[in-house]
Amino acid sequence: MAESFLMEACVDSVESAVNAERGGAGRLELCSSLLEGGLTPSQGLLQVVKQYVKIPVYVMIRPRGGDFLYSDQEVEVMRKDIELMKRHRADGLVLGALTEDGRVDTELCMEFLAAAQPLPVTFHRAFDMVHDPAVALESLVSLGFQRLLTSGCDNSALEGLPLIKQLIDQAKGRIAIMPGGGITERNLQRILEGTGAQEFHCSARSGRDSAMKFRNSCVTMGAAFSAPEYGLKVADVSKVRTLNAIAKNTL
């Protein structure tokens, strides 16, 4: 039982990807813009990450931050990104879309899944914005998604633990339910024990200071909520190892 879990690390750089693999992650979710919850990474990032790691790399298909109701032009971008990420050897894709009334957009998701074949596809935390989680889960099962990433429709997987447990019970193995959102060394054991999940998703990052010696403190390269210009966050090998050890001792 101790070897039956899998840790997926959410990464946005080659350094984080390498560190996550070194720490024992079993799969990567490759994104850009983690401050916005993760957007589609560049093809260049995918290609270089694939050169440096051997574990599966699932690529986020999300053209912008904000909601999951997409315009025709945004859908066109997502179609093209699916095509390009497949061409550049993505091992799987992560995506999702909702209707304006908070349901899974089954028609659009069916189109995306067809375009993604034969790659496995995870439905991401768009699920946490649905009107009725039980109904939405059945939609995902019917569509053929391999996995659902969810915080249990709450701010974190710990807060959403009761719903995650309900979803796992409802799924009955028809789709993998992967808790994610705010998972740390302090709460992982409680989340795994409370849900019975066999996979979990986290970034396991630590801050690292920039190597820049000259610094212009008057300029910010983004909105007011953006990350500091001279601070980096990368996956921490020791954190990944700790999380894996906790999972092994729990399951």
Describe the structure in your own words.
By secondary structure, the chain is an alpha/beta fold. The chain has one domain: TIM Barrel (Alpha-Beta Barrel), CATH 3.20.20.380. The protein contains 8 helices and 10 strands. The strands form 2 sheets. It has an 8-stranded parallel sheet with strand order 7-6-5-4-3-2-1-8, covered by helices on one side. A two-stranded antiparallel ribbon has the order 9-10. Helix 1 packs parallel to helix 8 (237-250), helix 3 runs parallel beside helix 4 (106-116) and helix 7 packs parallel to helix 8 (237-250). The mean pLDDT is 93.
Order of helix and strand elements from N to C terminus: EHEHEHEHEHEHEHEEEH
What is the C-alpha radius of gyration, as a whole number of Å? 18 Å
Overall mean confidence score, pLDDT: 93
Distance between the termini: 6 Å
- The CATH topology name reads TIM Barrel
Subcellular location: Cytoplasm; Nucleus
InterPro entries: CutC-like (IPR005627), CutC-like_dom_sf (IPR036822)
Family: Belongs to the CutC family.
GO molecular function: copper ion binding
Short synopsis of the structure:
The chain is built from eight helices and ten strands.
Name its key features.
single chain; 251 residues; alpha/beta; TIM Barrel; eight-stranded parallel β-sheet; two-stranded antiparallel ribbon; globular; cytoplasm; copper ion binding
